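Entry 12.
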Amino acid sequence: MSGRSERMRRSGALARGGPRVRPAAVHRRWITAAALLAAACALPFQLAPFHVFQFTMVLVYAVALLGLNLLVGHAGQISLGHGAFFAVGAYGTAIMLDRWELPHLLTLPVAAAVAFVLGLALGVPAMRLRGPYLALVTLAIAVFLVPLLKRFEQVTGGSMGLTLGKPVPPAWTGLAEDQWLYFLALAVAAAAFLLAGGLLRSRVGRALHALRDDEAAAEVMGVRPSRYKTLAFAWSALFAGAAGSVYTWVIGFVSPDSFTVTLSITLLAGIVVGGLGSLAGPPLGGLFVMFVPSIAQDVNDAAPGVVFGLLIIAVMYVAPAGLAGLAGRVARSARRVLRKG
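Predicted 3D structure (tokens):
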């Protein structure tokens, strides 16, 4: 069978129903997820407040990277403007808290919905672009955002930004503020991963995989590229907007300089290092985005960017498929050893 025919067969299978997953593998995934969730729940009771804050930010970045992974890893698109949707969620929440005094929890779905609509709007031109042209358009959005936020000073606070109150833990929980924020971020992250997992198992996810593997073959099999590319941008933006909303809860402050193009590039580096096309990639990428810049700063105060870049190159040399791929290889090797033992 020719390579083209094989791609068409695989794309058709993905569009119809996707590959079958063995029950043992499904059980193993659920057991692993339950163990990780239990460890995550115990984490804030074992660490100092600053480290709890760091892991809270890891969860925030993981949700943002989940959306970027959907777009880049599963749909095969490229975006250098993901930080703009993150900023939309953050500033949308900040404005709702500052101007309208809405409850914190109510701001999350509104900010995510606004980001989703903007993602749909961006998805329309994205239907006609690909590769470097699409990257350039999304990069322009990230560059354009910062001066736009500074211009509307009466709404966004301009260069000074907005200072906001953080969610207060209910008395019945007995939690400190840092622990409460951590559990809020954990709840949002858990819901986001469940939603993303369901989306990828649905017809939408199968269609995205078919388009990523071979767009022409997928179109022959009945997949409409324009529809699903637009949906990919919209869902990606929704997750980024939700992450930006939780970011505002955790930090209690937003300013334009927090959402420069550097954020978009860092997020893209994070998902590539974490592992494209894997649900394990976003949390691993979140750890990378949160901790590696601080490590680079400690190694060399004068040139943290150089150290950061070298660390990315080193990780990609050791694990070309990302940290998730490396973890998968280690797990498979361990299972083989245990079977032989």
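Annotation: The beta strands are 162-163, 253-254. The mean pLDDT is 84.
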